[in-house]
Amino acid sequence: MNLTLPNGFPIPTPGFGTYKTPDGEVCVNAVREAIAVGYTHIDTAALYGNECSVGEGVRQSGKPREELFITSKVWNTERGYDKTLRACEKSLKDLGMDYLDLYLIHWPANTKQFGDRADAINVDTWRAMERLVEEKMVRTIGLSNFYSSHMAPVLAAANIAPAVDQIEYHPGLMQEDTVVACRENGLLVEAWSPLGRARLLDNPVILDIASRHGKSAAQVILRWVIQNGVLPLVKSVHAERIHENFDLFGFALDDDEMCAMSALPEARFGSHPDTVEF
Ligand SMILES: NC(=O)c1ccc[n+]([C@@H]2O[C@H](COP(=O)([O-])OP(=O)(O)OC[C@H]3O[C@@H](n4cnc5c(N)ncnc54)[C@H](OP(=O)(O)O)[C@@H]3O)[C@@H](O)[C@H]2O)c1
Questions:
Q1: Every domain of the chain and the residues it spans
Q2: Which of 3.40.47.10, 3.50.50.60, 3.20.20.100, 2.60.40.1940 is the CATH number of 2-198+230-253?
Q3: pTM exceeds 0.85, yes or no
Q4: 169, exposed or middle or buried, with CB in 10 Å at 0-12, 13-18, 19+?
């Protein structure tokens, strides 16, 4: 299934994640398997150190490049105009591709690390992202881990508006302020760690709903994300799980089930954008 980005390009949901997928055969096989199952959207990043293997998995799949949607991200050490341009060139070279469908700023520069300069750094990085679109190296550009306070200066300065914000999102962390800011400004929200890095899979509320539908906890969580209008990115290196996580469209959660999952206690498994020091 496809959603539509603000610039009109389709973006397939769910997407296949590759964070902590080891470079080499494991990653090549996981990406090839995911494409065989039907995923056409692959999410990687320079940080993950596996772009060469993602590219190889794509080539081994035999699927034409234009039928796939590939995302990568500029890492925090490469912020700023010139370094961002070079970082994208390197990602494309490692992937063995001549364009990305989506390129994201992985984390905002924050005031904890950069003080008053943080907003200017993010805007400078954004200028490079826009240049990458002009150079046709990237089709769509967006943000990751940006809250409304980080987003506002970029939106004010942008000639090309960000199309996406990729944030930690799962039962226990719905990030309502950020989701509202995204929707008011036309950004699609993508969910990272939708399964809470597997730590939500033994939650009794989720298991009870899953058993009612004859589905797994992972399927029920991914379905909850989709029904909230958010695009999940889900990672696995196991063929049966890769398959399971893609089988999400033959059932639906009712309002009570959606509310029960939305009411789970707060849990954050990743870093907070205002306090990260990497
Ligand atoms: N922008 C960012 O800052 C950011 C941060 C984190 C993640 N991401 C992106 O979002 C993607 C997803 O997030 P994530 O990888 O952190 O976490 P996740 O997808 O929520 O969870 C992945 C974990 O769950 C396990 N798993 C997957 N499917 C399962 C199933 N059906 N049953 C049981 N266990 C299952 C996986 O194990 P196995 O692999 O062993 O099956 C892995 O340990 C990443 O891969 C990455 O592409 C982005």
A1: 2-198+230-253
A2: 3.20.20.100
A3: yes
A4: buried
Is residue 48 part of the annotated active site? The answer reads yes
Contacting residues for 153 by C-beta, under 8 A, at least 6 apart: 119, 122, 123
Give the binding-site residues of ligand 1, using a 6 Å CB cut-off. Answer: 17-19, 43, 106, 144-145, 166, 192-198, 201, 216, 218, 233-238, 241, 244-245, 270
Q: Tens of pLDDT along 60-80?
A: 999 999 999 999 999 999 999
**Ligand 1, closest atom to CA 235?**
19
Summarize pLDDT for 107-144 with one digit per residue, the tens.
Answer: 999 999 999 999 999 999 999 999 999 999 999 999 99
Residue with tokens 């610039």: 7
